[in-house]
Design brief:
This protein has 130 residues and is mainly alpha-helical. Among the domains are: 21-59, no CATH class; 79-129. It contains 5 helices and no strands. The longest helix has 33 residues, at 97-129. The model has no long low-confidence stretch (mean pLDDT 86).
């Protein structure tokens, strides 16, 4: 029997007051947290890469994208020329790779809009002929 999308087998949902399994596990680990943390730090200091990653992920905040505007010289030529300008700006360090990726996505969106507009005008011209 196939499942119906968006429909749960439990119409009433989870009963109020039933704890999540993850919450139960956290409660079991809480008394041991200082000892576990000490062991994890010791492993990280002794060279355990997994422990190092765990420690660093917890103490280093995630890098969030900025909303600052960027400006690079863009040629007035074709979209391919503009894509090349983005690539050159990224390869010389004028903009970051993430910024280049974002600009390339914008350029790709522009290409799709131009293709759609061209297709729309061609269909209109064909409809006039008939």
């Amino acid at each position: 029997m196939a499942f119906i999308k968006g429909t749960s087998g439990n119409v009433k949902g989870r009963k109020v007051g039933i704890p999540d399994r993850r919450t139960e596990l956290r409660e079991l680990l809480k008394p041991h947290a200082p000892a576990l943390l000490k062991i994890c730090v010791e492993l990280a200091l002794s060279g355990d890469i997994g422990a190092m990653k765990l420690c660093l992920d917890r103490i280093t905040p995630a890098i969030k994208p900025t909303a600052e505007t960027i400006s690079i010289p863009m040629p007035a030529g074709s979209l391919a020329d503009q894509g090349k300008a983005i690539l050159e700006a990224a390869s010389t360090g004028i903009i970051s790779l993430d910024e280049a990726r974002g600009l390339t996505e914008i350029l790709t969106g522009q290409i799709k809009l131009l293709e759609f507009s061209d297709m729309e005008s061609r269909i209109a011209a064909l409809e006039k002929l008939n």
